[in-house]
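Researcher: I've been going back and forth with a colleague about how ABC transporter permease might be arranged in three dimensions. Neither of us has a model we trust, so I'd like an independent prediction. The organism is Streptomyces mutabilis, in case that matters for your notes. Sequence below.
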Amino acid sequence: MNELPQQLVNGLLLGSMYGLIAIGYTMVYGIVQLINFAHGEIFMTGAFGALTVYLYVLPDGTSMLLALPLMLLGAVVVSVTVAVGAERFAYRPLRGAPRLAPLITAIGLSLALQQAVWAWYPDAKSARTFPQIDGGPFHIGDVTLQTGDVFLLVAAPVSMAILAYFVMRTRTGRGMQATAQDPDTAKLMGVNTDRIIVVAFALGAVFAAVGAVAYGLKYGQIEFKMGFILGLKAFTAAVLGGIGNIYGAMIGGVVLGIAETLATAYIADIPGLDQFGSQSWADVWAFILLILVLLFRPQGLLGERVADRA
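Model: Here is an independent structure prediction for ABC transporter permease. You can compare it with whatever you and your colleague have in mind.
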């Protein structure tokens, strides 16, 4: 029990990362009813975009305090470019097609992005070391935080506050709400729905890029296949919170992160389970939680039962 505060903070950190990625799933689904399974790879390309800026754009020896904003910008540029390109060339031509077509396209795009980074990025076949911020660790009572943890704890709530302001207070944000409710009526009222859809993909990519930089700072390395399992868990977080609800995505991520951390730390030590090792069970709890939510509250924690759009 002495480790409980640390485990709760670890879960909060992990869940915040899931939530940042899950926002992209839920925004796109809320507007175009599409599950973008390539979103995990958009997250991955953002991480490599940040690393590219550090290795090939900035002079050697640049302080991380100066490099971090530029790395974050590089991650955002790469992720947004990939997301907008995917929307324009992969998803938009299939907008009127049966739902199975864009789903298969998303899976194919996910594999293509993985292999593109694996084939073209120098030494991407193995994990690449991600630069770290000097300083730390920081001790608050029984809780220990690394510098990457501090970045994530700041970035997640700030990102959510900016998103809330954008959606609730700007003209484009209100257009997104209108398009999510009824795209045909929104178009009749003068909303450029094609532009709104592009904005949704771009915003989701921005949050994925922030999560990618946070991942690199927290774990110290990135790899071309890292987006697959994180994307699945972020999708689980989006469903858990109520897919289509941007606040639910972050809440679902936090709940999932805490549940996974506590289960890995405590349940895996139960006699009979401990023989497999806690890490062997780390990826299982997310999907156990997803099954339970789908059984007892399929609309998610903050979701509402709504009719499917035709």
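Researcher: What would you highlight for our discussion?
Model: I'd start with this: Residues 3-129+137-296 form a domain with the ABC transporter involved in vitamin B12 uptake, BtuC fold (CATH 1.10.3470). After that, consider the following. The two ends are 51 Å apart (CA to CA).
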